[in-house]
Structures are given as C-alpha cells and as structure tokens.
Design brief:
11 strands; single chain; binds zinc ion; about 20% strand
Length: about 280
C-alpha cells in the first residue's frame, strides 16, 4: 500500500510557492498521485485479475473494472473490526464491543476520472492559438489550476486514510493454470460464457467460464491447426494470435513431425449455424 503523505506535502509546498509554474507542477504531481492511488488498489487485487484483461489504463476505468470483475464494493468505505470477547452462542453481535483493525476508503471512479481529466485540460496543455497574433501563454490560468489542485488534494487526503485493503467478499473459486499459476476469482462476479485470463503476465492462457448448479468449470481456450504434412493437431492458447495483424503470416514447427507450417490471420465468411443464407462481410 502506498504512503500518499510525501506526495501531499510536495503538492502543498508547490501551491504555497504561489506562481504559475508551481501551480502547474502541483497539477502534474496531483494527476500522477491519482494514477498511483488507483493502480495501487489494482495491485492489491492482482491475484484476481490479469492486467491484460484491463481494457483501459485510465485510473477511473481501472477502478470500474475492479468493481465489475473483482470487488463489487470497492466504491464503498469499509472498516474491519473484531470483537473484544469471544462470540457467545445465541448472543446479539450488535451488543459486543469491537476494536477497529483497519479501514479501506471507497473510490468514486466518476469523481477520480473528472478530476484527472480536469487537471490535464487546465494545466498540462498549452492553449491552442485561434488566429495569427494570438498570444501563446507559457502556462494555463494559475487561479483555475490552483482551485482544481485543491479539490484533488481533498480527495487524495480522504483516500490516504486507508489503512488496510480488502480483496472483496463472498465465496472464492480457484484453478491452477497450465503454467502453474494459481488463479483466484470471486464466485459472485463470474459470468457464464465469459473469458478470464491467467494472472501470470508471461502466460497467454485464457479460460471460458461455465457454471453447472454452483460448480464452476474453467475450460482452456485453444486454437487448433492441423499440420500440413502429418495431420497432427497442434494447439495454442487463442491469445497467442491476438497480436497478429490482418493478413500477417506466422509459422510454427509441428510438434509431431517438425515440419514448418504457415498460418495467416484472414477474414472469413461464416456459414450460419441454422444453415440459412450466409452473411457476407
Ligand atoms: Zn498461466
Ligand atoms: Zn506434422
């Protein structure tokens, strides 16, 4: 968990200098701090989601993905307490005395996104001239930048009150990938038919989720290609080919006979499963 206090001090010191330059540098520090605090929360959940499955890197998008895929309560502030005495069978938990162990301050992804965008618009771009002779200023409007940085400081100070992090609540399921990595997921957020990526950044494996009653199955998603020479079926994780471009050619040596095969990424016309007229792209 990151300690935001040194960053908060730097931002306050820059605002205290009270110049156009220092306000701009304070905005940069504040924007980086918003990114760090969001990515730190992501890092605490990395056992549950692959970074390759984050569709966007912007701080608000990262938090929204965490809420959808890992911890549906990440927007809510949660406090963990333990009772001072042992649990009494039949007793009312509300009557117990508790000691606070830690608090995780909830994120508001919409607010974080708005602040992050506003800092960029006000402070981190030079104003575009509209006509010949327009003055091109060195910096943005210092007063507006200062006001926005102060808003961000308030939010960062609130988030810095986090003393522990939770990985979410509810039953957990796990599977071990072919690479040996143990993957954990929150059962309540798994969706039938969706794909989930192995959390190992060096592994391309992905798994299709199926649910039968309360049992989850993770089925390896593979691409299979028959060898041109010996007909042996060679298979790879489908993600191996995601980085290929349309019309690009790649090669592989057959696992059985060693013969070199070529594969190409092509657009194909699909025959409808019901046997009806085909749709052409
Ligand atoms: Zn793996
Ligand atoms: Zn072969």
């Amino acid at each position: 968990m990151i300690d935001l206090e040194p960053t908060l001090k730097r931002i306050r010191a820059l605002l205290a200098e009270d110049t156009e330059q220092s306000a701009t540098y304070a905005a940069l520090e504040a924007r980086l701090a918003l990114e760090r605090v969001c990515y730190d929360r992501l890092q605490q959940h990395h056992d549950y989601i692959s970074s390759a499955q984050l569709r966007k890197w912007q701080p608000a998008a990262v938090i929204n993905t965490l809420i959808a895929e890992v911890d549906e309560h990440a927007a809510v502030t949660r406090t963990f307490s333990v009772s001072k005495g042992p649990a009494i069978p039949g007793g009312n938990p509300a009557d117990e005395e508790y000691v606070t162990v830690g608090t995780e301050v909830g994120f508001n992804p919409k607010l974080v996104g708005e602040l992050w965008n506003a800092l960029s618009g006000l402070a981190l771009h030079v104003k575009l001239p509209k006509k010949r002779g327009d003055h091109i200023p060195d910096y943005g409007d210092a007063c507006a930048i200062r006001t926005k940085v102060e808003e961000v400081l308030t939010e960062l100070e609130r988030l810095s009150q986090t003393t522990m992090t939770f990985s979410g609540f509810g039953p957990e399921v796990s599977f071990t990938c072919s690479c040996g990595e143990k993957n954990k997921r929150r059962a309540g957020l798994l969706k039938e038919g969706h794909s989930t990526f192995c959390i190992n950044p060096n592994c391309k494996a992905s798994y299709r989720i199926t649910k039968d009653n309360d049992e989850f199955t993770f089925e390896s998603e593979l691409t299979e290609v028959k060898c041109e020479k010996c007909n042996e079926v060679n298979s790879w994780p489908v993600r191996t080919f995601y980085s290929m471009k349309y019309d690009q050619t790649a090669s592989f040596n057959c696992r059985s006979c060693g013969s070199k095969n070529l594969v190409r990424w092509r657009l194909m016309r699909r025959v409808r499963p019901d046997g009806g007229p085909t749709a052409t792209p």
